[in-house]
Design brief:
- This protein is mainly beta.
- It has a single domain, classed as Porin, CATH 2.40.160.60.
- 8% of the residues lie in helices and 56% in strands.
- The chain contains 3 helices and 16 strands.
- Strands 1-2-3-4-5-6-7-10-11-12-13-14-15-16 form a 14-stranded antiparallel beta barrel.
Length: 331
């Protein structure tokens, strides 16, 4: 365990001080939706597509919702530099499929899951100027993703999920765009401790722009395609010590290849410590990864479980780092 910790911190240190080089995918459409979802996932380097234990979010893999225990509601708020905002809310629930003819003690015929969520992002306090440099007031932009996913567990080994995502981008007054995308994911449970995931994200997602309402007859139309992401992940759960470790590989049609690493340690009762490394770029070794750290603490409140989450992420190209606060409700 000590050797693993030393190796992880060595990788983190190298990437913190590596020479920065801009990645094409960072400026591609929908970049806000690829930053992660919530404090738990972000602090574990977003290597979550195969993690089935604890509270899950179908953002990482639509097949995960069948592994959720009880009803789960999550809300998170991010503190970012440069007047940016990033907020999350999610609801996940698992269903046991039964027939009316089955007795109360009969095992379920199947397991299904549903998850719905929102990602809200934006930039405010933008100084607006006309073509003569005169101030026209402050401007703001916003982007939003709304997703709805369904999953089914076909056997003790295989779970498959589908997510439909709707994007809304307000770039400027009378300049907006919408888009649709699809996620497909599966989880293979080798045993109770090892899980493997496969996923395609943002299939056919794009923004379509038309400036007719602003420029009239001189308007132009264009389409910006989102990167198509292909992911494979593996997670391993240790019973003693109570540790979950995960690794994920992502490739895109924007010529990027990333590795993500994450770990969660249940150090004491309902206290969890986390660390991760997001976007370790194997196709460009000069591009710095994003180390993250965090924790969660849960408290029972009657039949419910309430948790507080925190994540700290070192962010390249920014004057300060990310802080994410979240609240979980499991009931």
């Amino acid at each position: 365990m000590k050797k693993i910790i030393v190796i992880v911190f060595a990788i983190v240190s190298v990437n913190i001080y590596a020479q920065s080089q801009f990645s094409e995918i960072s400026s591609a459409p929908g970049a806000f939706s690829r930053m992660g979802f919530g404090a738990r996932g972000i602090s574990m380097g977003n290597a979550m597509s195969s993690v089935t234990d604890g509270n899950v979010v179908s953002y990482y893999n639509p097949a995960l919702s069948v592994f959720q225990q009880n009803n789960f509601v999550q809300a998170s708020y991010s503190f970012l530099s440069l007047d940016r905002s990033l907020n999350f809310i999610n609801f996940t629930r698992k269903f046991e499929l039964r027939s009316r003819r089955d007795s109360a003690d009969a095992p379920p015929r199947g397991i299904a899951g549903i998850s719905v969520g929102i990602i809200n992002s934006g930039v405010s306090k933008i100084d607006g100027r006309d073509n003569q440099g005169i101030s026209t007031g402050e401007l703001s932009t916003s982007e939003n993703q709304f997703f709805l996913s369904f999953a089914n567990k076909f056997s003790n080994k295989i779970a498959v999920g589908l997510a439909v995502k709707f994007y809304y981008n307000k770039l400027y007054d009378k300049m907006t765009s919408t888009g649709f995308g699809i996620d497909l994911g599966t989880v293979y449970s080798y045993n109770e401790n090892i899980h493997v995931s496969l996923m395609l994200s943002d299939i056919n997602a794009k923004y379509k722009w038309d400036s007719k309402d602003i420029r009239g007859d001189q308007s132009r139309s264009s389409a910006d395609n989102f990167p198509l992401l292909k992911k494979i992940g593996v997670s391993y759960k240790l019973d003693d010590p109570a540790v979950i470790a995960s690794i994920e590989f992502e490739n895109s049609n924007f010529n990027t290849s990333f590795i993500r690493l994450g770990a969660e340690y249940n150090i004491y009762e309902k206290l969890f410590l986390r660390a991760g490394l997001d976007r370790l770029n194997v196709s460009n070794t000069d591009y710095p990864a994003r180390p993250g750290f965090g924790f969660s603490f849960f408290k029972e409140a009657g039949a419910s479980l309430i948790g507080v989450n925190y994540a700290f992420v070192i962010e390249p190209y920014s004057s300060s780092n990310q802080h994410i606060l979240g609240v979980d409700f499991n009931f």
